[in-house]
Amino acid sequence: FKLCARVATLVLWYAGEIMTFLLLYVIWCVVLTQCVYADHFVRETSEDVEEKALLCRRCGHDIAFPSDIITIASQLASRRRNETIHGTKTAFIQLFSNPQGLSLLLNANSLQAFTCPGHQFEVITLSRADYKAHGDVYLEYTWFPGFKWRIILCPVCGVHVGWSYEAADRTHTGDIPSKFVGLILSRLLHATVVDSLILTPRAYRTA
Known about the structure:
Elements: H1 2-48, E1 54-56, E2 62-64, E3 69-70, E4 79-85, E5 89-97, E6 102-107, E7 110-115, E8 120-126, E9 132-138, E10 147-153, E11 160-167, E12 179-184, E13 188-190, H2 191-197
Antiparallel strand pairs: 1-2, 1-13, 3-8, 4-5, 5-8, 6-7, 8-12, 9-10, 10-11, 11-12
């Protein structure tokens, strides 16, 4: 009888140890699964986050995206600075003076040039943008030597948003791309700013 009792005690002890091990193993598997799922969720979420656009300040049309911002320095800039565009990406901003003294205004749905001596623009350079080209291509008075320029407009409302640039030499090689755009910083608005201005009416807010 004592032998049977000892055997039973040992069996129960081993059974308890095995159950404890199995319980710890199950807990470890659950924790590991949750960690893997959480990591996958974070990665998937970060990849699915839609990039906020740079909008036309007048009509809100998507002109470009911060990921398209590139640095193309010009020796003709009167001032340069780096600044984060609404917490998304650092942009190289250059201040240029208009040598022709010409600017553009939207007047009765038509574009008119007017004399504006000393007019200055803060410009950021991008690899691409959504725009409508306007007028002829010029090499004179360019802010980027070796590149021809053309005025570009918002394709929706027609406001002047910057200039497109194209290498004058078709055999152009180097670090600078053969085509890029320069957008006027003051004519743009980042989508996060617009989102922050759209507030939920107090009556619809939950306690």
